[in-house]
Amino acid sequence: MLRTNRLKRALAEGREVHGILASLPTAAAIELIAEAGFDFVVIDTEHVLINPETVEHMIRTAESYRMTPLVRVADADPKTLLRLLDGGAQGIVLPNVEDPETLERAVAACKYAPEGERSLNAGRPGGFGKASLADYVVQANREILVVAMIESRHGVAEIEAICAVPGLDMVLEGAADLSQSLGVTWQTGHPEVVRALEAVQRTASEHGIPYGAFLRHPHAKAEWQARGVSTFLLGDERGIAFRALQQALGDARAPIESDARAPIESEARAPLAREAFRS
Q: 69: which strand partners?
């Protein structure tokens, strides 16, 4: 049955929330993220091959922890959005939104009439018909989140029209692809990229739409907080896991200082004991 969208409530109340991209195609990754205390997770099906059954298990796992599961799609195909929502996703993240028309079609695919055109179904979000489906469609329209990622020069130029689309719940930055679009690939801290991100955030704020920022450097949170941002993403769990593994291995391989400590008595006697054993 469709759960209360805790992320949507937090956004409406301006509370600070933290999320992460889930790129490992397994429910165990969602358990790790939830146990770590994240408020929401974005299951990535844009850059990652995940079969539909696994996505549903990942969504179900997030639900069990009362963590909001969103899914980033590869495109805005209405049939794709329909299946993910029928599988229990509480929100859709649309990559590289560049015009209001694309967003309008996506909102229509995510909302039931009269707000949209989503096909009716009594699947797991609707409790398989356990409760009134007439009540369910109203609840679903209230709970589902639609998120637009701005990842290109054209998207930045169209941000005013994009933010004016009814049904948009959050704008999420995409500095990596945006840097490429601006001709400074992977330079997410380049002044031109930063100016574009700030322009998008400012416009979203003027329209009363929450903005989600990735924390890419130690001072990023303070800088975005000063601009009124309270929704933060920490990247993807693969990158975080890789850096943690790399650090752990580096620590293990680091040479031990020879004079770090004197040998304890048992160690000092060990050579004598081995000699005695061999004699």
A: 41
Phi then psi for 117, rounded to 5 degrees?
-130, 20
- Sketch out the chain's domains with CATH numbers: 6-238 (3.20.20.60)
| DSSP letter (8 states) at residue 14 | T
Residue 186 near residue 132, CB atoms below 8 Å: no
Q: What is the pLDDT of residue 161?
A: 98
**End-to-end Cα distance, the chain:** 75
Which sign does the torsion angle of CA 54, 58, 64, 69 carry?
A: negative
186-207: burial string, b at 16+ Cβ within 10 Å, e else: ebbebeebeebbeebbebbbee
Distance CA 126, CA 31 (A): 24
Among 18, 47, 57, 154, the one annotated catalytic: 47
Give the residues across from 19 on adjacent strands: 40, 233
Q: Alpha-carbon distance 34 to 20, whole Å?
A: 10
57 noted as active-site residue: no
pLDDT of residue 259: 58
**Mean pLDDT per 10-residue run, the chain (279 residues)?**
94 98 98 98 98 98 98 97 97 98 98 97 90 92 98 98 98 98 98 98 98 97 98 98 98 83 50 40
CA distance 83 to 87: 6
